[in-house]
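Exercise 7. Given the encoded structure of a 341-residue chain, write a plausible sequence.
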């Protein structure tokens, strides 16, 4: 048996030598075997957006920076509005602060951080989407902080990446939360969240990242999983979303979209939630809020759900009732004494 194997090996080597000689003589072409795997260059795609997965955001630290009241924007009954700024990872973020006038029995005030929904940058002004309800909260003794976000108001520009701009927004809110204590009037131990539309989605992400019990009011929150939550609105774009879909295709080749989706982390929420939804909302279908409420209850999260017949995305027709419920909600959870509007 060994002899047969030896003969076969020698025959193979002889054939290889003859074949190589034949190529060299006939074509002047030496036979060369290469290892395509060993010689192929290895390219590792950079993945800078890994830092914005909800797991990573839950593990990192958020440095505080001074909240600076830059100038007065307006005054009303019982409050003063300011343009404020702070730093988020070294970038300046502006926003509107509404500060209640000092009261004899209240040295420091609880804080409501208001997170607006989508507003086109060309039409944006500081306070859009938050100031009306914010003034009511201030009249009831709350400090209101409503950030503009990078690229808006007097904030620094974001990085030149459509997904960096979007996924960095929770970081800006979390850095603002850790900075609340730099305001002498603010009680950093009593913080509530308010979010409308896309701001509602951001508020949910903050609750998942921190796992803290910030009382949270949601107005018609965008609650579908990423990236459907943004693809749903592409028909409103000038190019019907062609550029966004192109960028999203590149994103999905590198990243697991589930790691950025609030729906996959609802079980981390520990905060009480009050949710408001209009029945004729043409931006956030009522079915979305119905589904979200059911998912929250399935995860044993405390949620109170209100629907408003004939109310639209901005709660028109029911706005006063919605704000009144929010004041009562925050009073119950952030104040020892319950004030009325």
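Solution.
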């Amino acid at each position: 048996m060994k002899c047969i194997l030896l003969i076969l090996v020698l025959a193979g080597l002889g054939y290889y030598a003859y074949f190589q000689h034949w190529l060299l003589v006939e074509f002047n072409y030496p036979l060369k075997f290469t290892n395509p795997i060993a010689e192929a260059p290895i390219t590792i795609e950079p993945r800078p957006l890994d830092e914005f997965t909800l797991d990573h955001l839950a593990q990192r630290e958020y440095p505080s920076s001074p909240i600076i009241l830059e100038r007065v924007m307006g005054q009303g009954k019982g409050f003063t509005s300011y343009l404020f700024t702070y730093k988020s990872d070294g970038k300046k973020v502006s926003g509107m602060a509404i500060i209640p006038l000092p009261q004899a029995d209240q040295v420091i005030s609880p804080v409501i951080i208001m997170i607006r929904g989508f507003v086109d940058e060309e039409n944006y002004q500081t306070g859009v989407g938050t100031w009306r309800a914010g003034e009511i909260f201030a009249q009831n003794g709350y400090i209101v902080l409503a950030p503009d976000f990078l690229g808006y108001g007097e904030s620094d520009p974001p990085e030149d990446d459509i997904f960096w701009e979007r996924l960095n927004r929770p970081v800006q809110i979390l850095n603002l939360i850790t900075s609340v204590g730099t305001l002498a009037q603010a009680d950093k131990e009593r913080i509530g969240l308010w979010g409308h539309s896309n701001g509602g989605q951001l508020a949910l992400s903050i609750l998942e990242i921190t796992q803290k019990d910030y009382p949270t009011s949601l107005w018609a929150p965008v609650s579908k999983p990423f990236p459907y939550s943004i693809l749903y609105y592409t028909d409103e774009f000038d190019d019907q979303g062609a550029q966004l879909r192109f960028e999203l295709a590149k994103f999905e080749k590198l990243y697991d979209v589930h790691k950025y989706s609030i729906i996959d982390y609802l079980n981390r929420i520990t905060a009480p939630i009050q949710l408001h939804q209009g029945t004729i909302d043409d931006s956030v279908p009522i079915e979305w809020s119905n589904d979200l409420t059911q998912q929250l209850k399935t995860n044993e999260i405390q949620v109170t759900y209100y629907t408003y017949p004939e109310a639209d995305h901005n709660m028109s027709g029911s706005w006063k009732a919605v704000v009144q419920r929010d004041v009562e909600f925050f009073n119950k959870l952030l104040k020892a004494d319950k004030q009325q509007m």
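Remark. Residues 5-10, 22-33 have pLDDT under 50 and may be disordered. Students should compare their own answers with the one above.
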